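Weekly sync, protein design subgroup
Attendees: M.S., D.O., the rotation student, P.L. (late)

Item 1: inverse folding check
M.S. brought a backbone from last month's batch and wanted to see whether the design step gives back something sensible before we order anything. D.O. pointed out we never logged the input encoding, so this time it goes straight into the notes. Structure tokens as presented (644 positions):
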């Protein structure tokens, strides 16, 4: 007994579970169908956009899922603005109940016709749509929404109301309008014209009616207007939009945008309603913008770099300049950029669109090797606003293939040059390092020979020995100077140091020269800087030595520094004999300006200073006038530590 009772309970539960699953499956099918309808909305909208009639649909909750171009045009809202929102958001509060009641009746399966719905526009006005609402059913026949395919009767209601309220009321509405309205009969006779025609064209109503339109409108425009009127009369079209060039009373021309609609079958209007608006300034501005656009594109075409503009969302090429068109052999506008430039069916895996979005469209610069053209380009990518207001990708690609090749060759030559320079420096170092030893022996034995035989030889022999000893000594000094010059690149121990201390060391090295000359040296307040302290000391020592050497009497020397924004500017000023301007550059290149018997020295001092300062990423120069003294300047960057 218990066994049968248990078995019966299980069967009951099983039946309930099967019933529950069937309900869930049915609900799932409905949701799936509903989802398919919603996801296909965009395609349906595209299909319905070919119609000028206003069309929209809502689901069983009142949410908008179809909104074609016809209703978008008269309301100012696109599908992107309203899709998924409830229709009640676009209905005046007092009229929401009426609209909800219509939708409710349709969802119940009632058949309705000639229902009027008032929808708010983007500029806080209303448009009136006369429609026969139709239910939308899924495959099971269940009503899941309703669609409204209608006719815009806003103008008709406005005109009808105006006529009902008398001509005076209509005049108050239209006389100050930026539009003027004409109503033509089936015989093309003007039945009505609004007073605002005076504001726009300068004619009174009486004057305008007496004129022939063929005399007011440019011939080509009048021909097009007449053709449209014939189609209206034969009921071939409901609406026609055209620009007409109409002569103002003062003789100038106005561009009038006309929207003509066919109400010949309307028992109240019984005519063709022409709503006209003065768009002269707008058209002139459009012409200016078009001219500037053409000028811009002409400029782009004159640039040798490749320039193209593409939509970052769908990758369509919107513009390509002459360089791109010549490279490809055709104009790629309308094609996908990844197909045009890389022969790819899908977007490039490393497309920079994502990077541009992340950087808010700020410019990106990079070098890219294009495999399709086997060329190297320097790329500038950024987002700009396109002519229609959308954000687009603007790319400039400069072909640097030859430049990169030249750069590579230059790097190779620089490497060879650097090797040669190192060889020369090594040669100079070893030569200056090894030569002093045999030269010292020559000098020593000549000196011994001079001391031993000076009184035993004639005067000419003594003079020859003196010349030999002097030459050996001068050669020894030159070799020492050459050794210093060759070691500049090798002795670079950069660090922070006190300039005051290094100037004191430099002056102490030439203490005897300073005392013998009676030189007066003034030193300004000095900073701590980053550099090579030994080489810096050598620069000061050489410049002060030269200042004393090339001074006739009472040398006066001033050492100072200026604290500039990015660098230290040092100067060594003297009151010496000065230097002719034509030698300003030569003296830094082993150029002697005076005979050795007048001003002794190796001639390497200033080239050595230039090399030291150059190795500090600085520069050295001078200002001088003959007999007025000389000032040597040199700068050392403040960011030298970071550079090193």
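Designed sequence read out in the meeting:
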């Amino acid at each position: 007994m218990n066994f049968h009772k248990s078995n019966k309970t299980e069967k009951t539960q099983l039946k309930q579970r099967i019933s529950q699953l069937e309900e869930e499956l049915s609900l799932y099918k409905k949701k799936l169908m509903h989802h398919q309808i919603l996801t296909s909305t965009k395609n349906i909208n595209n299909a319905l956009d070919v119609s000028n009639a206003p069309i929209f649909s809502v689901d069983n909750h009142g949410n908008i899922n179809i909104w074609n171009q016809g209703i978008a045009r008269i309301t100012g809202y696109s599908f992107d603005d309203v899709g998924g929102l409830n229709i009640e958001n676009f209905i005046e509060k007092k009229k929401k109940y009426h609209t909800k009641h219509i939708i409710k009746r349709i969802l119940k399966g009632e058949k309705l016709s000639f229902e009027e719905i008032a929808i708010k526009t983007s500029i806080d006005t209303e448009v009136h749509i006369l429609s026969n609402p139709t239910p939308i059913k899924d495959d099971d026949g269940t009503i899941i929404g309703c669609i409204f395919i209608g006719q815009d009767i806003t103008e008709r209601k406005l005109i009808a109301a105006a006529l009902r309220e008398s001509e005076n009321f209509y005049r108050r509405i239209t006389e100050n309008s930026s539009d003027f309205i004409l109503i033509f009969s089936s015989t093309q006779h003007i039945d009505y014209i609004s007073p605002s025609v005076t504001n726009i064209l300068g004619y009174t109503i009486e004057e305008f009616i007496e004129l022939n339109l063929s005399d007011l409108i440019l011939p080509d425009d009048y021909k097009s207007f007449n053709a449209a009127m014939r189609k209206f009369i034969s009921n071939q079209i409901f609406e026609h939009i055209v620009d007409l060039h109409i002569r103002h009373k003062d003789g100038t021309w106005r561009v009038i945008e006309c929207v003509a609609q066919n109400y010949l079958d309307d028992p109240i209007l019984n005519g063709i309603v022409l709503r006209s608006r003065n768009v002269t300034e707008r058209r002139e501005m459009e012409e200016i913008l078009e001219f500037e656009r053409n000028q811009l594109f002409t400029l782009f075409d004159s640039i040798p770099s490749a320039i193209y503009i593409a939509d970052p969302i769908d990758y369509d090429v919107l513009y390509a300049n002459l360089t791109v068109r010549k490279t490809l052999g055709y104009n790629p506008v309308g094609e996908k950029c990844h197909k045009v430039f890389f022969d790819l069916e899908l977007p490039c895996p490393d497309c920079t669109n994502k990077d541009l979005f992340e950087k808010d469209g700020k410019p990106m610069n990079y070098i890219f090797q294009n495999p399709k053209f086997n060329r190297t380009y320097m790329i500038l990518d950024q987002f700009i606003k396109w002519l229609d207001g959308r954000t687009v990708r603007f790319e400039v690609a400069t072909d640097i293939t030859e430049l990169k090749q030249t750069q590579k060759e230059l790097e190779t030559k620089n490497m060879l040059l650097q090797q040669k320079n190192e060889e020369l420096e090594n040669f100079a170092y070893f030569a200056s390092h090894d030569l002093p030893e045999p030269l010292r022996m020559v000098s020593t034995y000549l000196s011994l020979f001079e001391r031993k035989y000076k009184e035993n030889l004639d005067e000419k022999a003594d003079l020859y020995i003196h010349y030999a000893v002097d030459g050996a000594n001068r050669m020894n000094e030159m070799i020492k100077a050459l050794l210093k010059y060759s070691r500049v690149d090798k002795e670079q121990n950069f660090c922070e140091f006190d300039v005051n201390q290094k100037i004191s060391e430099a002056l102490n090295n030439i203490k005897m020269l300073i005392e013998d000359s009676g030189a007066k040296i003034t030193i300004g307040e000095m900073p701590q800087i980053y550099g090579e302290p030994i080489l810096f000391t050598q620069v000061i020592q050489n410049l002060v030595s030269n200042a004393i050497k090339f001074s006739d009497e009472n040398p006066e020397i001033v050492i100072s520094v200026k604290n500039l924004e990015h660098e230290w500017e040092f100067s060594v000023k003297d009151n010496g004999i000065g230097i002719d301007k034509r030698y300003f550059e030569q003296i830094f290149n082993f150029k002697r300006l005076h005979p050795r018997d007048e001003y002794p020295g190796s001639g390497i001092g200033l080239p050595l200073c230039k090399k030291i300062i150059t190795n500090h990423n600085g520069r050295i120069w001078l200002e001088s006038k003959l007999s007025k003294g000389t000032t040597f300047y040199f700068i050392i960057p403040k960011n030298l530590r970071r550079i090193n």
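Discussion: Residues 2-39 form the longest helix (38 residues). Confidence is low (pLDDT under 50) at residues 1-5.
Action: P.L. to compare against the previous round before Friday.
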